[in-house]
Design a protein that fits this description.
The structure is a single chain. The strands form two sheets. A four-stranded mixed β-sheet has the order 1-4-3-2, with helices on one face. By secondary structure, the protein is of the alpha/beta class.
Length: about 130
């Protein structure tokens, strides 16, 4: 098998709202869009983010009404504090304040208009030993 591209597809009620959130605040751009569909890309993201409108007939019947509940879009960034300051200045509500975990993860979260969680992350030296 050879994987040539990656994407995460999320079912949401308002495709345009989620698309605008990633475009306006995270530098993504719409690569493809149609009624009930948007595929967003960023050269450095390593994957596309695809939004599908819930109830879309092209989805398998057992998935049409699913929502992206419990999914976290996590992006590792170079300067977490700068991103936090930028998003705050842009008026984005921080839904999980910046925190540091014992395993070395530092992260904060925002939530898009459809409830999709976007987490920005960086990594430090763990404060507790990790086991292998």
């Amino acid at each position: 098998m050879s994987i040539t591209a990656s994407a995460v597809s999320l079912n949401v009620d308002d495709v345009a709202a989620s698309s605008a959130f990633l475009t306006d605040h995270f530098g993504f751009r719409e690569e493809l869009a149609a009624d009930g569909f948007a595929s967003l890309t960023r050269a450095d993201a390593g994957m596309n983010v695809v939004y599908l409108r819930r109830g879309l007939a092209s989805l398998p019947e057992d998935q049409r009404e699913d929502h992206a509940d419990g999914v976290i879009l996590a992006f590792v960034v170079d300067n977490l504090e700068a991103e936090l300051a930028r998003l705050t200045a842009e008026g984005v509500t921080i839904t999980m304040p910046l925190r540091e975990e014992p395993w070395g993860e530092r992260a904060f979260q925002v939530t898009d208009p459809n409830g999709v969680i976007v987490q920005l992350v960086d990594w430090t030296t763990p404060t507790v030993p990790t086991t292998h």
